[in-house]
Design a protein that fits this description.
Blueprint (H helix, E strand, L loop, with lengths): L7 H24 L19 H9 L2 H32 L5 H11 L8 H10 L6 H25 L3 H9 L4 H12 L1 H17 L2 H6 L7 H6 L2 E2 L2 E2 L1 H21 L1 H8 L6
Antiparallel strand pairs: 1-2
């Protein structure tokens, strides 16, 4: 009889790795409640204060940054899935001779450094009047996340038995009915995890938001960067701003962790 329990050292190692990953967030959370003088030490003995949060709220319109982050993150995720699901459906169930090359080409676009296309995209956005606009960020975020969405949806669709769709076709179902009544319900855990991953990636994206937005369309990543200036770093205020920026997505990840893990392992065990 096989012992299904893992060795103790595996659990200890797992907790150690998790602590190392979580340590930067813990330092930010602690520093946010310090004064600027105390923020330059790692001491855990200090008098907690909310002065940094008060100064952050007085200096910036926090809710405006949150609103922009929510719009571009969830909006680009919805747009990505609307485009990716039909594309993955076609590649999975009606593959052409170039299907694999198309998938590899899409994946290769994620390997290219974003700075390599900064100038042409900046000039295109400027000529189209999309600089510092939510619409411009929505388009960019959708495009940069689309390869991941197509790849993940394609992987989940490949796990669906083709016999189910063939039976539906025999009964007279068209492509739209197959996708709506059979494919999407069957792949829902995987698509939900894809959506969560896209939201997290969009929420944390900084390169394009810093280069294409400044004030009216600026998301939370620009909000954090605004606390780094030539006069120096104000660690307590920067930590307070960072904590305010990461808390919404941390809460979302915490609430949806079971769904995320379920989707990530969808089809891994047969």
């Amino acid at each position: 009889m096989n012992d299904s329990k893992s060795p103790i050292w595996v659990g200890v190692l797992g907790w150690a790795v998790a602590f190392v990953i979580f340590l930067p967030i813990l330092i930010i959370a602690v520093t946010a409640f310090k004064t600027e003088q105390d923020a330059y030490t790692l001491s855990l003995i200090f008098t907690p204060t909310l002065s940094s949060f008060h100064e952050v709220f007085e200096r910036s319109h926090y809710l405006s940054f949150v609103s922009n982050s929510v719009i571009v993150s969830f909006g680009s995720t919805i747009l990505s899935l609307i485009i990716a699901v039909p594309a993955a459906y076609s590649l999975a169930f009606f593959p052409s001779v170039r299907a694999q090359k198309t998938l590899l080409w899409m994946l290769s676009t994620k390997m290219m450094p974003a700075v390599g296309v900064l100038i042409p995209i900046y000039l295109l956005a400027k000529s189209a009047g999309l600089l510092d606009s939510v619409t411009g960020l929505l388009i960019i975020y959708t495009l940069i996340n689309l390869p991941i969405a197509v790849w993940m949806a394609f992987t989940y669709f490949n796990e669906v038995p083709k016999e189910i769709l063939e039976a539906a076709r025999i009964d007279g179902a068209n492509a739209w009915q197959e996708m709506l009544h059979l494919l999407l319900p069957t792949s829902l855990p995987g698509l939900a995890s894809t959506a969560l991953l896209l939201v997290i990636l969009s929420w944390n994206e900084a390169f394009w938001s810093l280069n294409l937005s400044s004030s009216s369309a600026a998301p939370l990543t620009v909000f954090i960067a605004s606390y780094s200036n030539p006069e120096g770093l104000f660690w307590a205020k920067l930590s307070a701003a960072s904590l305010l920026a990461v808390m919404p997505i941390l809460c979302l990840g915490w609430v949806a962790q079971k769904q995320l893990v379920r989707g990530m392992t969808f089809g891994a065990v047969k």
